[in-house]
C-alpha cells in the first residue's frame, strides 16, 4: 500500500491560509521537471488511463488530438469489460495512436500502479473517491497528471489533493484539472470583461445544473453488493460524493473564477429525494440548493437536480451593480452591452493540449488553486445540505469527515458502507437529525 501524504502533519490552515497556499500552488513552478518525467522536445508522449468509463475514454481521445506523438500505452479499470470496450472504441478512432497490447490492459485495484509505471502522463477519471489517491501516486512517481472533477469528495480528500498539488509544484510536474470551463475561449473573454469592471461589483450569482440522472445500472445477480455499488458508483455517495461536488462543481468553479478565487465564508442548503426511488438510485439525494455567502455580502445560489421530466438548465447568471451576465451566452447587458463575437473552441481538447504542451515544452502547468478551492466549495455545499444547518468554511475544511473507508483500504472485499432495506432503497442522510446525520 502506498503511504499517503500526510497533510495533517502541520496545523490545518484557516480560510486565509488556505487561500494563500492555493494561490502559491497555482503558480508555475521554476524547478526542473522530475527525472522520471518526460523530457521536453518532440518525442513520443505516452499516456495511460486510470478508469475506462466514458469520461476517461473521452480524456484519452481528446489528449490524442493534441498530436500524433501522443500514444496511449496502458489502461486499467476494476472491471475487465470496461477496459476492452474502451480500447476497442479508441482504436477505431485513433488506430495509429492506441498502442495498448493485452499485457498493458490491467484489471483490479492495483492496476493503477502499472499504468503509472508505463506512462509519462496519467489520465485519472474513475470513482471520484480514488482521485486524490491515484493523483498522489502518480505525482510521487514523477508523472504528469490530468485528474477529472471532483478532485475529492470529502474534507479529508480535499486536504490530500491540496498536498498533491503542492508536491507537483515542488517536483516541477504538471497537474491539470478536469474543470474544463477555464479553457473555453468564450468564457475566458467574458470573465475578463467582468474582472475589468464592466458589470461593477458582483452582488449575486445563480448557478444551475438541472438535468436527468446519471446513467443508472440495474443489478446483475452475479455481482456482490460491493461490486454492484462500484458498477453504479455515480449513485453512491461514498464513491461519488453526491451531486453538489460531482456535478454542480462545474458551476461553482465558474463562479469562483468570477470571484477571483475568493472562497465563501459559509453556506446553508436545502436538499432531499422526491422522485428517484429504488436501488438503482443508491443513497443520494435527487435535488439540492446550496447558498453561499462571501465576505463582501455577495451570494451564490447554486441549484442541481437529477430528475427526468423536469425543467433543465445548466446556465449561470451573474448580477452586478452595473449589469447582468448570462454566462452560457457569453453576453453582458447593462450600462455597457457586450457579446463575445466568437469563434469558440472545444475546452476539453484545449485542456488536454495545454497539458501535453506543458510536458513537451518543459513548462509545468498547475491547476491547484482552483481545482482544490472549487472542489471544497462543492464539499461545503454538500455538507450543508446533508446536515440542514449553516456550515462555515473553516469547520468544513477542518472536518475529519470521510465517506466510507479510506480509498487505500477499499476494494471488492470491503464491507459495503450502505445496504438496501426491505423496500430495496438505501438509507439517506436526514437533515436536521444530528443523531443520524453527523458529519462535522
Structure, described:
By secondary structure, the protein is α/β, with parallel strands linked by helices. It folds into two domains: 193 residues, NAD(P)-binding Rossmann-like Domain (Rossmann fold, 3-Layer(aba) Sandwich); 158 residues, 2-Layer Sandwich (Dihydrodipicolinate Reductase, domain 2), CATH 3.30.360.10. It is 34% helix and 18% strand. It has 13 helices and 15 strands. The protein has a nine-stranded mixed beta sheet with strand order 14-13-12-11-7-10-9-8-15. A six-stranded parallel beta sheet has the order 3-2-1-4-5-6, sandwiched between helices. Strand 2, helix 3 and strand 3 form a beta-alpha-beta unit. The protein is globular, with a radius of gyration of 21 Å. The protein starts with 14 loop residues before the first helix and ends in a 42-residue tail after the last helix.
Topology readout:
Blueprint: H1 15-26, E1 45-50, H2 54-64, E2 70-77, H3 80-93, E3 105-107, H4 111-118, E4 121-124, H5 131-140, E5 144-147, H6 155-171, E6 175-177, H7 185-195, E7 202-211, H8 225-231, H9 237-240, H10 243-258, E8 266-272, E9 287-293, E10 299-306, E11 316-320, E12 323-326, E13 331-334, E14 338-339, H11 347-361, H12 368-387, E15 391-392, H13 393-398
Parallel strand pairs: 1-2, 1-4, 2-3, 4-5, 5-6, 7-10
Antiparallel strand pairs: 7-11, 8-9, 8-15, 9-10, 11-12, 12-13, 13-14
Helix pairs in contact: 1-6, 1-12, 2-11, 5-6, 6-12, 10-12
Amino acid at each position: 500500500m502506498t503511504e499517503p501524504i500526510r497533510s495533517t502533519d502541520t496545523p490545518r490552515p484557516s480560510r486565509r491560509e488556505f487561500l494563500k497556499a492555493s494561490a502559491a500552488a497555482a503558480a508555475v513552478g521554476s524547478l526542473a521537471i522530475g527525472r522520471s518525467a518526460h523530457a521536453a522536445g518532440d518525442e513520443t508522449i505516452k499516456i495511460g488511463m486510470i478508469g475506462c468509463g466514458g469520461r476517461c475514454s473521452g480524456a484519452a481521445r481528446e489528449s490524442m488530438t493534441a498530436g500524433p506523438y501522443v500514444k496511449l500505452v496502458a489502461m486499467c479499470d476494476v472491471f475487465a469489460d470496461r477496459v476492452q470496450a474502451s480500447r476497442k472504441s479508441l482504436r477505431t478512432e485513433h488506430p495509429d495512436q492506441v498502442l495498448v497490447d493485452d499485457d498493458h490492459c490491467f484489471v483490479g485495484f492495483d492496476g493503477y500502479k502499472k499504468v503509472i509505471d508505463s506512462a509519462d502522463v496519467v489520465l485519472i477519471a474513475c470513482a471520484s473517491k480514488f482521485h486524490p489517491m491515484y493523483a498522489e501516486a502518480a505525482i510521487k512517481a514523477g508523472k504528469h497528471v490530468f485528474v477529472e472533477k471532483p478532485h475529492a469528495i470529502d474534507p479529508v480528500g480535499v486536504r490530500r489533493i491540496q498536498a498533491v498539488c503542492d508536491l507537483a509544484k515542488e517536483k516541477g510536474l504538471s497537474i491539470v484539472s478536469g474543470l474544463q470551463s477555464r479553457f473555453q475561449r468564450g468564457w475566458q473573454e467574458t470573465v475578463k470583461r467582468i474582472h475589468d469592471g464592466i458589470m461593477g461589483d458582483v452582488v449575486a450569482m445563480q448557478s444551475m445544473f438541472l438535468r436527468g440522472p446519471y446513467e443508472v445500472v440495474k443489478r446483475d445477480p452475479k455481482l456482490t453488493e460491493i461490486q454492484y455499488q462500484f458498477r453504479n458508483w455515480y449513485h453512491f455517495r461514498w464513491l461519488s460524493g453526491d451531486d453538489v461536488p460531482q456535478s454542480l462543481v462545474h458551476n461553482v468553479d465558474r463562479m469562483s473564477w468570477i470571484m477571483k478565487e475568493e472562497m465563501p465564508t459559509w453556506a446553508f442548503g436545502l436538499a432531499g429525494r422526491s422522485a428517484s426511488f429504488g436501488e438503482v438510485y443508491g443513497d443520494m439525494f435527487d435535488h439540492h440548493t446550496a447558498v453561499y455567502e462571501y465576505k463582501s455580502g455577495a451570494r451564490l445560489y447554486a441549484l442541481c437536480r437529477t430528475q427526468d421530466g423536469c425543467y433543465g438548465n445548466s446556465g449561470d447568471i451573474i448580477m452586478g451593480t452595473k449589469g447582468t451576465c448570462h454566462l452560457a451566452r457569453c453576453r453582458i447587458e447593462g450600462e455597457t452591452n457586450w457579446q463575445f463575437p466568437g469563434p469558440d473552441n472545444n475546452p476539453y481538447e484545449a485542456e488536454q493540449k495545454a497539458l501535453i504542451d506543458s510536458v513537451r515544452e518543459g513548462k509545468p502547468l498547475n491547476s491547484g488553486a482552483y481545482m482544490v478551492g472549487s472542489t471544497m466549495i462543492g464539499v461545503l455545499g454538500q455538507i450543508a445540505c446533508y446536515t440542514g444547518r449553516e456550515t462555515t468554511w473553516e469547520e468544513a475544511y477542518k472536518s475529519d469527515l470521510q465517506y466510507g473507508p479510506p480509498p487505500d483500504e477499499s476494494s471488492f472485499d470491503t464491507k459495503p458502507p450502505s445496504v438496501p432495506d426491505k423496500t430495496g432503497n438505501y438509507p439517506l442522510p436526514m437533515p436536521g437529525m444530528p443523531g443520524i446525520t453527523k458529519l462535522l
